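Forwarding these from the shared drive since the link keeps breaking.
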Amino acid sequence: MRDFSDKLAVITGGASGMGRQLARQLAAEGCDVAICDLSDDDMADTVAEIREEATGIRITSHHCDIGSEEAILRFRDEVVEQHETDHVNLVFNNAGISGGGSLFEGTRESWDRTFEICWGGVYWCTRAFLPLLEAADEGHLINTSSVNGFWASLGPDRPHTAYSAAKFAVKGFTEALIIDLRNHTPHVGVSLVMPGHIGTGIVKSSLRHGNNPEVTEDIRWMMDTAAEEFEKNAPMTAAEAATVILDGVRENRWRILVGEDAKILDQMVRANPEDIYDEGRLGEILESFRDAADPG
């Protein structure tokens, strides 16, 4: 799909971060867009921004909890009705949160909420929209995993179980779909997106929409500060990441690494897969990842 004009794109988590930037760039190329999110105010800002920048396209926003299959089915039905369509061309399973780091220290609620959004949302959204992709002349499914979809760690002292498990699931699911789609609906392509450290509000969104009953006000304040630093200090902006993703879709690449840090970490994991979780290696890999993210 070299040309996005006169197409219809569905984007989960479209109110901020990479989702917002994907919506902006697609709309600028003449693509109609349907975004969903839990933040109505941020969605309203995104829609207003796009309507100022792009003319002649249709953009709709939809309140949807991606952790609920029922909500996703309702989102799909709203897209069909409001865009007066029987098909969609692009589905970006972009929404995600973090949480549920440790099976020992975290709550079951936090773990399940993270897994439901980061994995369940991708699976349910794919099932919901697949018939509409199949009905299009051209279709492409884009699933966002992470570097934590091939390296399940944040370093030697920070368990990262729920998010990593979900992102590994997204990776395996997407790779399996390459052959499944080729056999059943070959005009629909699929891409796996694996970003490194990108300047998004995922940490803020996790605080807002995750299930974190153990977080006190003092801890929340510290996490809010950390969230701002995470976004501000990222080596790649959300807009730059969106451009990389859309270029990958145009080239029909099934595997899209986003950021130099992601590429370096991928090479390190592939070079020595047996020892990537050894205690000494964890710190070395994390340091290399950070150096790649901050070459200056």
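-- next protein --
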Amino acid sequence: MSNSIRKWIFVLIVPLLVFGILGSVGGGAGHGVALQSANVNFDDKASMQRGAKYFQNYCSGCHSLRFSRFNRVAKDIGLNAENGFSEDDVKTLINENLIFIRDAEGKKVKTGSLMKTAYNSKAAAQAFGASVPDLSLVGRSRGADWIYSYLNGFYLDPSRPTGMNNTVFKDVGMPHVLGNLQGWQTLEHSEGGEHGVPKLTLSKPGSMTGAEYDKLTRDITNFLAYVSEPAQLSRKMYGIFTLLFLFVLFGFAYALSKEYWKDIH
């Protein structure tokens, strides 16, 4: 076999193997459970604001976003001068609605601080059996559909220490912190038995209707998907400008080429 043939085999086969591996990893993210579509929308600033509020009120007691800063997040989700908020208004909104942690002196951290949690990792490990993960990159590592399905996948399981389990994260150590809002679900199975498609039934309603809770989980998912890659809010615009620039440059390059070779051809 010639070297050129080997080269082409390498060029064609290796990408297929890589895509196959990535596909198998992505397919196993939900432990074989079909994930629900989150339909995130980063243009919906109101949804992202609600998601930030819900995250800070229900999730930030344990989970941090240590790669994000309060003031940057506030700006990206629409709390900025472009939407009619003064600098003082933004600081007030951040302090009242987003910042719940304090420094060593007992004062609220500044608006430019990283979004850490006051929960000690060792205490978390003792309480839940494992350290509580930072969620800065969960939108990239798991995907928006996984987050949304996870938030909707809790069900009662007396065999677990917290009394809860999850359809997309088997034997999860996290309690269902949104249980009072959603209610409490029980797990059933399809005709395929235990290996069938899981079906959740609401056995005890919460303070929200199904539609209200669905909107809440979509808002949190929208926010976490944004946090995992803030640049996605602007990168599409940059991509369009780059393509337009290359298109114009191609025109000039083509005209220059014609001018350069006109006396030869």
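Strands lie at 65-69, 114-115, 154-156, 164-166, 183-189, 198-205. The first strand starts at residue 65 and ends at 69.

- D.
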